[in-house]
Amino acid sequence: MTARILLLGGITEALAIARRLGPQHVYSLAGIGRVPQDLQCQVRVGGFGGAEGLASYLREAGITLLIDATHPYAAQISRNAATAARSAGVPCWALRRPAWQAQAGDDWREVEDWAGLIEALKPFRRPLFTLGREPLQHLDEIPSEQFWTLRALEACPGNEGCEVIGARGPFHIEDERALFQRRSIDVLISKNSGSVATEPKLEVARELGVPVLILKRPVLPDVDRTFHSLSDLATALDL
Ligand code: NAP
């Protein structure tokens, strides 16, 4: 049987793998970011309809290997992938980026969820949020003594207590330093994505003595094989 891969994308490394896949393979995107137009493999955009929908797709499309290369905080699709692969009898591999580790000089405080984050934010006045769009749902909860800077992929209207700036990585340390200084940032809020492209903000926080509130990583399901780097996955796929 000819191998046919379904690659669930969401991180830079997934696109790098997709660029090496031939036309029998499928690269799947949720549809919230840019969709590449220059790939040899097929590109599918949009959800499958939960684990059941994904299992049906695996069977109907004759997929022989499912690869989960989604973001470490995209826990739902990772859970769906593991469940669907088991149900369809297809092996499931995952590319899981190692988490960033605190270094000397870092003041990192892990928070469990949004409620924990709001509590941990109380002593601060000028937070920089780098969690994507989720904080947009909480603009009405901003305490009067705080001014939030919220960085997302696209700029959009904020309110009197918040400005939303749009920017896409990779980010450079000079620009991150200028952002922190211009806006008098006194705390950084981040996921622990482990991405090289967004790491400079952590270097600046360390340099300026700014604490970092880190949203805890979700627990992801066990799969048949787990890779921690693009090169290890590419080698296993013989790409
Ligand atoms: P999520 O909560 O785990 O997934 C929500 C739903 O989106 C899934 O149930 C699935 O819909 C669909 N979906 C997600 N990834 C998909 C893919 N690669 N192909 C087809 N459908 C997909 O994910 P999320 O946190 O909303 O993130 C959405 C996408 O953005 C993910 O692919 C993720 O890798 C990427 N991303 C997320 C973050 C983050 O911080 N969460 C950051 C950067 C990139 P159905 O149930 O209908 O199949």
UniProtKB/TrEMBL annotation:
Coiled coil: none
GO biological process: cobalamin biosynthetic process; DNA topological change
One Pfam family linked to the record: CbiJ
Record pathway: Cofactor biosynthesis; adenosylcobalamin biosynthesis
GO function term, MF aspect, one: double-stranded DNA binding
PANTHER family attached to this UniProt entry: COBALT-PRECORRIN-6A REDUCTASE
Protein's UniProt name: Cobalt-precorrin-6A reductase
Organism: Pseudomonas putida
